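hey m, so remember when u said the tokens were messed up on ur end? i reran from scratch. heres the input so u can diff it against urs
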Amino acid sequence: MPQPKTSPIKPETEVEELRPDPLDIHNEKFDPEDEYRPEPAPEPMPPVWVDGSLRIGIHASVNGGYQQALESARKLGCNAVQIFSASPRMWAGGPARIPEADAASFRARREELQLGPLVVHANYLINLAATQPMLRTRSIQAFQDELVRAIALGADFLVVHPGARGEARMEAAISTIVDSVKQAVRRVQLGNLRILIENTAGMGSAVGSRLEEISAIVRGLSSIGAGACLDTAHLFAAGYNIATESGLEAAISQIEQTIGLEKVYVWHVNDSKIALGGKVDRHQHIGHGKIKAAAFARILRHPKLGASPATGLPGRAFLLETPIDEPGDDRRNVATLWELSGEDGPPVEKGFSMLTSALKKKLTAHRKEVAKVARDVAKKNLKKKKKG
């Protein structure tokens, strides 16, 4: 019978070596080095203004638009700026939201000018310590609106006054403030925005005239990274004698022991019309009040308050909230701060002021009209009392 055909057996030297299929994972041993590891997200770069340079700015008017404040700061020789995002003395003082086109244009122009930090100051009517349910609810909503607008503008800090406690105990008031802020922050992505609690002069039942009170609020808000803004005029009126060298050192020591200097991101730099411990908030031009120019030179040049990475806080800002009684007061106060600091500031547009002669006349007329209305109301109330 015929034998079935068989394939010839190759010599041993010709037998092809069996190699595992590279796609056959069952033939591969697991190597931990082969595991996919996503690249970690790069650490966010610090803003350009956190470069170790001294940051001096002013509260600039947004009359004429948000960008106008940036241009004013530039012309006055500032490299930082503070603004209101809406009217500070009216509940319905502006839009709850800023159109994205306007906000984007503002952010782009600010980046061009390299102004920073950008600080937004919250409405003065907000009372986060309020015990009256309606006022507290309104304050929380207004503060949330402030947060939304500040985020839209790309602000770095939002400064707010703690509020007045009325008849409430201080401990209860601080707890209310912390809770009010936390309620306002709900459903808001803060991003790079940091909330700063500002100290007060101590008038009436205002919370925050003592550093311990500001510290307690900041600690209560540690989960959202809150910090502090300290006002020189408020400190002085509250009894901290920063006008003398020893008094400044004592105040700095107390700040370190309570709030922590690393949590004081902004200083409001104002001279005071009120004497030490007067507990009244009245700002004066730099060097013309009770604190005096020499004290501001010590503050601006103090190693712990400066921007040196070794001893200070890079990016900390010194912002003027001084009055503008005459055209050029704003420019002169900015120039005085740079002079006292011992450093050269940015170029200044000669003769520029946020208060023009025409605007001064308009404001003077408005103040006279307001005073007249107040007098008329007082007379009417007096007549009613006499008839009653």
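this time it looks ok to me. Residues 356-388 form one domain. if urs says something different then somethings off w ur setup not the seq
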